[in-house]
Structure prediction request, 531 residues.
Amino acid sequence: MKKFLIYLSLLLLVSACKKGFLDRQPLDAYSNTSLWTSEKDIVTALNGCYKDWEDAYNIYYMDCASDNAYNQYPWEGYTELGNGTVSPSSSNAANRWSFTVVQKCNWFLENIDKFTGKLDLKDRYKAEARFLRAYQFFIMSQLYGDVPLVLKNVSTEEANKMKRNKKEEVVAFILKELGEMAENLPNAYASSDVGRITKGAALALKGRIELYKGDYQQAIGDYQKVMALGYTLYPDYADLFRIGNEDNSEVILDIQYIENKYSNGNVGVMPSNGAGGWSSIDPLQELVDAYEMQNGKTISEAGSGYNADDPYHNRDPRLTATIQCSGQPSYGGGIFNSLDAKIGKDANADYFMANNNTSPTGYIVKKYISHLEDFPDMWNTGLNAIVIRYAEVLLSYAEAKIELNQVDNSVYDAIDLVRQRAGMPKVNRAVYNSQSAMRTLVRRERRVELAMEGLRFFDVQRWKIGAQVMNQDVFGTRPGSVNMTTGALTFSSPNHAKIESRIFADKNYLWPIPQKDVDVHHDPGYQNPGY
Prediction:
């Protein structure tokens, strides 16, 4: 497992054009003539394309650009993406406008045919590179809209003159690519190659894009193909994300990491200072309130049994599997307490929500760090980051059917699989018996099932609910104290801690093009509207 992540060092070097948007691979760093002489060389070059095709940083932080979470450190890039103040000079808004992987894949695809020997897996190798390139175009077109559709290696001069292709054109290209390449990809790999692109990954990404685009019938067809490939939900939601269970039956696409060699160094941003972390990604009360009660009713629904003074009791188990709440068992052992500055003679400053490197919302991400003992060094881990998993496929299939008003047994069955795996009851069909009601349900189900997995912003974007859920004040827990023996909570105020005031305008559905690239093109119209 993960053996293919050992790269030829020269292929990892990346340089950036000083005057343009295009990060180019230094093609003169390794002789093309000598490189394409054996299948081993070709595989090594392909492995280089996998380098940084996606990053756990993006997966973990992305919910901070939505109503799910708050990034308390502006220098990390996501604070302004969440509160609506992002500008063309913002660092993280610029970081995902990157053509590095695109250029590496273009280079690979332009040169692989130079090998004149027998190459039985040529079509598969090409399909892997085409997927990685397509994924980059998907992310950029989703975040920035119109994107230069760069399908060959270009010079700096050429790059600086390239126009942005319309998003519709880019998406059409991506969908065509994914449909074609899926036929040349295997369903699975031997253990040494686990993590490479599969047919399921290509079809699932294609379905995701079609869902986002509103091509629901096409999405249904592709999701049905994925559902026929044999993926299953991992039986334990809370343990699904642990390092010992990675590459399980639910994972369709993930970023592979290797401790010490190509490590995931982002795990440490999630715990509190008391466990040596930073509390960079802080779940909001708005997300906590989205989880149903154990009986399947929302917290505002009559007969739910919700008690605001005991708010985490009898809730959807995914709440406390995803979010560390005060009074609940701690990711570090014992009882978590972010409410008290001190407990008797023992200082609790390392967890108290008003102190440094602790969560100002009082909530911490637990999904990836439920067992910190899994990591000898949480800043240097081999924890893979899941990009697509089977639960998303099931919920997306259900959503596409609902949008076409084809609410049949297969829709309920798909949602029920996800809910029951988590310990929740089946959908109450007497209550959720219309397109409108089912739309509300599946949207809530996506939010809680996929929380902190980097997808919420895209849902807000495509549902056009930004003004409703983002243009407002956001909050954390209520102040109070915790009984460290029983975990009982005593709140001292009915009011939740206000975190910040957010603004949202239509322009925020897209991120700004980096200012340096607008300047290079000498065209103010190169920028997205409103920035």
Remarks:
- Confidence is low (pLDDT under 50) at residues 6-29.
- DSSP finds 19 helices and 14 strands in the chain.
- The CA atoms of residues 20 and 158 lie 9 Å apart.
- The longest strand covers residues 251-255.
